[in-house]
Design goal:
By secondary structure, the protein is of the alpha/beta class. It has a domain at 327-399: Roll (Ubiquitin-like (UB roll)), CATH 3.10.20. It contains 14 helices and 14 strands. Strands 1, 2, 3, 4, 5, 6 and 7 form a 7-stranded mixed sheet that branches. A 5-stranded mixed sheet has the order 11-10-14-12-13. Helix 1 packs parallel to helix 10 (254-265), helix 6 packs across helix 7 (182-192) and helix 7 packs across helix 8 (204-218). The protein starts with a strand and ends in a 5-residue tail after the last strand.
Amino acid sequence: MHVKIGLIGKTNAGKTTFFNAATLLQAEVSTYPFTTKQPNYGTGYAVTPCVCRELKVTDNPRNSLCVEGFRHIPIELIDLPGLIKGAWAGKGLGNQFLSVASQADALIHIVDASGSVDEEGRLTEPGKGNPLADVFDIHEELVMWLLKLIDRQDDKIDRNLKAGRDLPETLSSILRGAKITEKHVEAALKLSGLDGKEFGNWKITDEKRFAENLLNVSKPMIILANKMDIETAEANFEILRERLPNYIVVPASAEAELTLRRAVHKGLIKYVPGEEDFKILKESELTSQQRKALDFIQSRILGEYMRTGVQFAINVSVFKLLGMSAVYPISDTVKLSDKSGNVLPDVFLMPPGSTVRDLARTVHTELEKGLLYAVDVRTGLRLPGDYKLKDRDVLSIVSATRRG
């Protein structure tokens, strides 16, 4: 599955800095509202321990990277224009933002934990902004956006229901463009206590409760408490954790991560994204300003929070929120290679409930057509097509058409 993660938040919260750090692209960063007028798309990576060490082989990845025993699996990151109040009604760049946000599988809501941004997304003195209110504002915009999508299709919904289609099928059909499925709708109806209530009898409170639950199940979200390098952030971070018990709140400094990755790019330090430390390689080439910045990151960010939070947030989004499993299809069960001799060449992110048949289809449609079974390389057992995949599975798919 090609995973898409959307970066949302108010202007100046640090979305584009996060995006640049995770992708090492050079999207424009500015303190002016709506600097990000068009969505920025780039490749980030979900990082997970590679099976190469467990299986004691040297791998040759093709669709991913293996860095010191950690597999870096490509995902798509979308840096979205900043949201302001009234975005759902078209204020600012709201319509454009929300149409792109609908394509994301999960969302990372980046909040300025230092309180340096006011309610309109303008920079202010640290501590004067209200990060908790920012979270509620963005949440309300997303809920109202979903309500708007449903309300403007009321007539179509009524026609479909009168024609005999059930409510989950009807709602998912009109929300398909937002990557909302029948399963999402069914789960939201149940959570809202509306699975037995006729749609025509819903009250506005029912609609909003449903939209809130639909948002939570179809666009799972974590909160990234950014700018933890600023003193006022610590108190706000604790407030966010206390007041948002249903969310994972990650302390972060996107600026620190960007600094470290750029230093790696220049060969100045050794650092693997997500790790708790870095090693200076070229001390003599560091300017006094660079050395001071690295010392600050070491003590203030890594020393306090163990990580910058950028890679951790991506990993949490992919593996915890979306529940993805990293699965390795191979051909040769002895060499753990494909037919060309590449060892552990590919890894695929598979959603919860995926089966051997789903994996075969992901690798190649012809492989699925003639699917016979798969072989677990660890146990040698034959696995049927409906076997549910687990994280770190290494499987050889046996097909009547060809062997994967």
